[in-house]
Every structure is written in structure tokens, then in C-alpha cells.
């Protein structure tokens, strides 16, 4: 199903919206490469944030005439674009050309009252549209899909792909965030910002993590943080004269306590006043305190933190790596999907590898190719200019932000080869001795005995995979070896790609045979060969539902 995204006449903004990487997914697609953003991360964030501020979310009746809907809303101001989606009801995301139109719409809106309950009169940008005459509307609008295809559909698509390269690109195309989903993510942050602004009028709620780093999969969580630096910068204006004015404030013993207090109040506020915010949990004693909630109308599981500038910078770095070469995202998506299919990752925190760590491993692997596919973080730092200089909490986060200043790689290896080599490389990596370090792009001695050590690129004394247990790491290594072996076998006995038989990437996403012994590169395992073959055979039919769980992470 294709989403409806119409660009209505709105001088000045239409041209901007038709930019290459902003094309709505309903328009002609020339391939996955078109999705690679070329703009600076900060420009993209600012532009999308500004768009979101001109946007409203409307819960609609199930049957609605699109034309009448648009005509009704146009009385409040010209509309730039809109789309519909379903999430326990029909919703519309409507972007006006001007921010002022939202005020007009709010003025023409009333707070409902019912006999049984009392409404808290909170005026947000989330509305409920009702029909005056229940019987007058008959048509159903087409809606944009916010979740990936079912496993069965994906399986079929992958089986009919032309090559393993094609499979990886197909998986990326199917799973990556759509234009509409990205808009909905920025809108959700903007709606939360409106609530936080009741306390901190100049705050910004910024999305980070996989929602913005171009590695997000449809259905992934929405990480956001409350940025109060704007407030501080505004108040730091230099004034003339002999005096310096300060705000009277309350002081607390540490930054952590300040964060906990702010998040505690915001959590209460979201719980009591936030339309559509449900299941609010205040997780304030975590290493990084957060408020977790579901934004029902968008269907996003949200994690709100404060002062998370380093995480935003990590997102920017991943955005740059994702944009440098079209193979990066394709490989990361497949590895993430492979890890999820084998329960190496989970949406529940624990001793398993995270998607963030897996992405770092892929980046590191691509830095180790000859010639390298990705530059090291140190070389991105060398290319930086004065504008790129950035120090956060004493950590040097300087790297080049202008993508055009980074030379494309000379490496021409196929995705198929890279996938195989990834499994070979990490199936044989000396995890007991070495750490992974994308700053220098080479293995280093592990500074401590953590089973998996991936140096935090900005807080260099920290390990981003400190949580990973020895048994989870061993599971990763075993599965990597097994996958390398499966791909090797396919080279020898490649199934006809026109058949419906699982092959290539699909074989890797299938569950491992039970009681599997540890694989080694050199050792042939007859039992495993037979089990895999039988399993592949048994999947010829329709038993494809449980080879991977596509919802969530
Ligand atoms: P998903 O699994 O798709 O949500 O990927 P994600 O990249 O959004 O991961 P997650 O939601 O777990 O974390 C959000 C962001 O926080 C990441 O993108 C990182 O920037 C940052 N982050 C997560 N885990 C760590 C960690 O262990 N150390 C550091 N320094 N940052 C982390
Ligand atoms: Mg996330």
C-alpha cells in the first residue's frame, strides 16, 4: 500500500519538499541510493523540526472524504502536505505552510465535555475530528503503513531477489524508515516539546538514536532528549555595564539529581496532561535516567532523557557513516536483522549485544577492509574545520560535518562478499585479547576483562558493550561461524534463485537447528549440514512465519 502524500500549492515550500532525499515514498523511486541523505545532520534536524512545528496530528473518523477534509482544514491556512495512517484508528498528519495556521485551528477547536468525565483543558496540536452528520461520509482514504511487511511477504521478496546483493538492498528498502514515519517521529518530539515548554519555554526535544541516524527500522523506539542548552545560551547574552544578572535558582548536589528532578516532573506532566501518552514509567535510578512511555497515536515507544548531547553526536557520526557509502546501511540492516532473528539482540535490556554495538562492529569491519570502505574517526577529525570543533563535557567530539569533504572509497567489494567476510572476521576475532575501536580503525589490547570491548568513540575510557556476557558473546561467535559456513556451502551448491527455496540471506535468517554444536571454520559438521538442509526443505511451504520477528527492534 502506498501512502498518500500530496503536495498542495504552498509558495516557497514546495520546491524544498521535492528535494532528492525528501521525496515522498509515494513518488517514483529510483532505488535505495536516493534515500541516502547528503545534507548536514544539523541542517536536516533543524529543517525537520521546523516542519514538525507547522504540523498537527488529527484522529479522524474511519470513513472520511479526503477532499472535504482538506477543504475544511484549508480554512485555517494553506496546507503543504498531509498523509493518513492507521494505528488503532485513522490518523492524519497535516503540515501547514505557516505556523500561524495552527493558532487559527486551535481557536476554532473546543474542549469536549462528557456527562461522566471531566476533561483537563490542555490545548495541544493533537486533535479529534468528528463528523457532524454520521452518515454523510462513505469513502475510505488510503493510509501509509508504519510497520514493515510481514515475515512471509519479506521472505518471498528475498527469495525472488536476483542476488545476495539484491537481497540486502531489498531488506534495507523494506525496513528503513519511510519519509512519513520520519515525519511522525519529529512530530511526536515536537508535541512532547510543547508539554515540556510549559516549564522550560526555550527547550528543544530532539530525537536521536536510530530515528535519526539512518539505521532505524520501521517499528524501532523513539529516543528523544530534552535540550535545555538553548535556554542557557539565550540567558548568557552579554550585557553592558558593571553588573551581571543571574537567575535566582534552586541548587541540587549534582547534575544527576537535577536530571532526575526535571524528568520526574515531566513524567508526571506527560502522565496527567499529555494527550495520547500512556504507560508512563519514570526510570530515574538507571545509569542514564529516563522517562519511558507509549505515544499511542503514533504507536511509538518513547524514551525521554535530558542532557544527552554525546548520544546525539554519536547519532550524527552514524548518520555520516551511513551516508558515505551505500553498502553501509544495507550491511548494518541485514546484520541487525540477522541478530534479531537469532535472539542475539532483544528489546529488553540485559546481557545481550545492542543494535548500537552491532553497528559499531560493522563500521569497524568496513574500516578494516583493503582499501577501507569507511574512514576512521581520527581521520574524520583531521578533516574538520573550525566550525566542526566540538567538546562535550570535556570529551573531544570534533569531526568533519560536511559530507562533501570526505573522499569516496575506492573499494568495490560486493555486499555478498562483505556479508561473508563479516561473519568470517568476527567468527575468528580475538575477543579475549582485543578491543574494537572505530576511532583508530584497528584492534587494540583490551583495557579490562569485559568479554566484548567496544570503545565508546567519544568517551574513550568507556566500553559501550560492557553489559555483554561471555555466553552471549560466544553465541554471537558461534552464529557468525555458522552463517559464514552456510554462505560457503551455498557457493558450492547454490539453489536456483527462481525457486521458492530459501537461499542467501533468507537461509541466514532461519532459526538455527536445535542442539547445534559449535561451528569452526575448518571443521565440517555433518549433523548440522543435514539439519539445515532438512529445515530448508521443510520451509519450502508456508512455514515461514517464525524465522524472524520483524516488529520492534
Ligand atoms: P534501536 O535498537 O533501533 O533503538 O537502536 P538505537 O541506536 O536507537 O539504540 P538505543 O535506543 O539503545 O540507544 C539510542 C542511542 O543512545 C544510540 O544510538 C546511541 O547513540 C546511544 N547509546 C545506546 N547505548 C549506548 C551505550 O552503551 N553507550 C553510549 N555511549 N551510547 C549509547
Ligand atoms: Mg533507539
Task: Give an account of the 3D structure.
By secondary structure, the chain is an alpha+beta fold. 37% of the residues lie in helices and 12% in strands. The chain contains 17 helices and 14 strands. Residues 1-9, 11-37 and 515-553 have low confidence and may be disordered. Bound molecules: guanosine-5'-triphosphate and magnesium ion. Guanosine-5'-triphosphate binds next to α10 and α12.
Q: Could you give a short description of this structure?
A:
The chain is an alpha+beta fold and 553 residues long. The chain has 17 helices and 14 strands. It has a five-stranded mixed beta sheet with strand order 1-3-4-2-5, with helices on both faces. Strands 6-7-10-9-8 form a five-stranded mixed beta sheet, sandwiched between helices.
Count of discrete alpha- or pi-helical segments spanning 4 or more residues? 17
Compute the gyration radius: what is it?
25 Å
Low-confidence stretches: 1-9, 11-37, 515-553
Each distinct ligand: guanosine-5'-triphosphate, magnesium ion
First CA to last CA: what distance? 23 Å
Biggest sheet: strands side by side, in what order? 1-3-4-2-5
Give the overall silhouette.
Answer: globular
Give the helix/strand class. Answer: alpha+beta
Number of strands: 14
Integer average pLDDT? 84
Proportion of beta-strand residues: 5-15%
Main beta sheet: strand number and arrangement? 5 strands, mixed
Helical residue percent band? 25-40%
